[in-house]
Amino acid sequence: MSVLEDWINAACLELGLERGDIDQGLVLDLARDVAHGVARPGAPLTAYLLGLAVGRGVPARDAAARLTEMAEDWKAPETPDVPEAPEVPEVPEPAGPAGETLLDDA
């Protein structure tokens, strides 16, 4: 048995869930699609949202299919083009007659 399987079994036992009720492939596929199509941090958050929806009675496969479709079609809202600030030339520090710096850093 893999470490992941051991973890899932232990987590199900801890939460009082039936291991057979967990569609591991469905959740992992959804997480992959969101991570690649939207953003990596969206994967665990979307898996959590899927769990909330299933807890409220939405069939897991239906909810995952809708979320996967959203992720595949996802385009982040465009941000307006902002012109880059012009480069500011570096101003040399004034030097005294012997070349020493006039400004004291202390």
Automatic annotation (TrEMBL):
Domain of life, source organism: Bacteria
InterPro entries membership: DUF6457
DUF6457 domain boundaries: 2-77
Biased composition (Low complexity): 96-106
Positions of region (Disordered): 72-106
Descriptive protein name: DUF6457 domain-containing protein
Lineage of producing organism: Bacteria, Bacillati, Actinomycetota, Actinomycetes, Streptosporangiales
